[in-house]
Amino acid sequence: MAAVELRGVRKSYGSGKNALEVIHGIDCSVADGEFIVLVGPSGCGKSTLLRMMAGLEEISAGEIAIGGRVVNQLEPKDRDVAMVFQNYALYPHMSVRENMAYGLKIRGVAAAEIATRVERAAAMLELAPYLDRRPRELSGGQRQRVAMGRAIVRNPQVFLFDEPLSNLDAKLRVQTRMELQKLHREFNTTSLYVTHDQVEAMTLGQRLIVMNAGVAEQIGAPMEVYAKPASTFVAGFIGSPAMNLLRGEAQGDRFVTTATSAAIALATPAPPLSIHLPVPAPRDGPLVLGLRPEHLVPASAGAARFGFAVEMVESLGADSYAYGLGGGGTLIARVAAGTVPVVDEVLPLTFAAQHMHWFDAANGKRVA
Amino acid sequence: MVENRPGLNFFSHALLIIGVAVVAFPVYLTFVASTLTADQVLDAPMRLWPGSHLLENYAHVLQKGAGGAAPLSRLLFNSLISALVIAIGKIAISIISAYAIVYFRFPGRMFCFWLIFLTLMLPVEVRILPTYKVVADMGFLDSYVGLTLPLIASATATFLFRQFFLTIPDELLEAARIDGAGPLRFFWDVVLPLSVTNIAALFVILFIYGWNQYLWPLLITTQENMYTAVIGMRRMMSGGDAATEWNLVMTTAMLTMLPPAIVVILMQRWFVKGLVDSEK
Amino acid sequence: MEKRVIFKNWWLPLLLVAPQLAVTLVFFVWPASQALYGSLFVEDAFGTSSEFVGVQNFLGLFNDGYYAHSFGITVLFSVAVAGLGLGVSLLLAVFADRVIRGARLYQTLLIWPYAVAPAIAGVLWMFMFDPSVGVAAWALKRMGVNWNHLLNGHQAMALVVFAAAWKQVSYNFIFFLAGLTAIPKSLIEAAAIDGAGPARRFFDIVFPLLTPTTFFLLVVNIIYAFFDTFGVIDAVTQGGPAKATEVLVFKIFQDGFKGQDYGGAAAQSVILMLIVVALTVAQFRYVEKKVNY
Considering the entire predicted model, what is its pTM? Predict the structure, then answer.
């Protein structure tokens, strides 16, 4: 087990003038035994970063250290890491047992030792009855567990997971997620986990690295990231449905939003674009106001901070999401199941002071 | 089929049976001739049912040969050696060069690729004379090396393996690298076992290719005990029409056809797959 | 198409391609360049001296009536072998594809001639049609046809065509059957619902969809007829009677090995090489064509 250090890690393809940088310098310290999730939309560079840690991609600049040892020039096999791939990458011609034993065999581990380790991992993953089967005779979930077993038997310093659950169906994904958490509690091995699914990220990670376009937008514990997103990108990416983001001009306790929705711009009479804030904005001038759907609460007409023209309602049982126009843009509000709003109704909404998120209008960074 | 037409079905089977019969007839005739005496064959029209000299003819040809040639057992052995060396050699050098071309970037990679591709355009028939000279200068006439080595390069096999390797998921190599396998280890433990079906299919095709070689062994073998079976049979008939011992020639033909035919029929599944795949 | 993930090592791959490269250079590229080089020279009968003559050898071929004749013979032979081989095998494959039960069995019964060496195929057919002992020749004589391919050039040609096409039927059959099996049954069923009968369906749907296979096989069969049938010709007719079956490959062999005309044979080899190149290009076009379907 080991800590992992990323220091100014960059990746670019090509060289000279044609060089295309895809990772723009990432710094992060992963503590020994920590479970870190790299999360971001596809193409943000999260898989590339993981593969650089594994040694499958060259590091263009910066350093990666595992257990205090800089591994930039080391072959994957010498880094003492194990990886679980999205498509599992099981050797199709080998049995489950052989698949799990292969890495140990190459490393010259004694046969008896290999057998005990494989048996132990198989028992833990409930794979014991399938040890002599070929991967194609297994279900997706079982294959996934074999891939994990292959990583476990190696007893490496670091586990690397590259979207390991994305090929499973929804129910199995939830179940495997819990198994992963259990495994991590048991082994306490430093783990880095790549996913594009923010639910997976929130539930699995002790800390998240939220990535966008080759940059780590925010590094922090899931609830911290949720409660205090560092940028509009993080605000929009973490949380489902996404945070409402309203552009506008702040002036004391008034926030005049810009009509960003064509529907609002065309509506006659134009809906009021002004929002009455519970406390003044951190500064005057152009800002972005973020409000999570769950923090928008129906109010009495007198206490309303803005009106919300409901266009569509999705009822999910426990609660409902109302989609509509308000404050200069398209908004989503979560309403309790008991108070299902009517379409075309104008709903007076309010929100609390501590639920406002303020971002710089120019660079999207958090202001307060 | 879409609709059930008993008449058409009957007609289909009848036509296919006729087709099979026409295709098989020359071989049946050969078999019949191989069971007769020389005089019985010459007695036109030759009878169309087998005679009683089967064992006698086969034993004679295998042990003593016919038309002054070496015993057929020796020639069949030569054919077997050539076919095996050609088939295994072609597969071996093709699979490793395909592996190099797919899994590495090295100086001259594309050059190698095109050079191998070029051999597709140079069948032995168009370069017989100079190739003969090269082999003669190397002193390989009348030798197994001369019979096999010049035929051992194979663009088709290399392309088939290349095509197949490209379908092996990249993640398998990555997993192997993390497991600690180097290039040779990955080849031996993963690529080779995964290629077994392709190898089997190619083996059938190349074994037949090697066994049936004609022009090349005809040129470079002059000693009777270095003839392949096909050449031996051909040489038996050069004594002029009257002197041809048809029953023994036909016995030789039967015995020479048998090994590759058995290989094709026993390995039909791989053979058909291999043929169809190799042309993709 | 290229692999994204590769090994970093430069000497191992060179070691791995070395055997293939060595064989290719020594036995393919070097002799081929020798043929090219030799085609520009004339050697005397003893091989002691050679004289540079430029394109003289090629001009000699164009003015040589026998060469033009051999060319014509080769074209006729190839077209006949390809036509007969493709026609018969397509017919058999279509009916084998029709019968639900037994298609596999018929395939097994039809594929083994692939294993027969061309020279042996030639001997088998020669034996059947031998003017004095052949069963078929005897039957033809009974029907009033005086069969003697040793004297009659047309009959000799027909015989080598039969022998060469016979051997190729199995190869074509395998590809046609595979091609037919690959046609979605739903298309046939849709046509049947539209009211097309079996024959109509074949010409309107099956045959057009089979075009890539047919084109590919056409090229393969022509290459086969050009080069792989040397054994058939040599065993059955030796190019005779009176050069009636002397195809190009056989002529190179005759002129080069028997006639000792190295320059002329080399020039013929070069022309043949060009033909192979053209056919190979055509064959690779097929691959693209197939992608378009």
Answer: 0.84
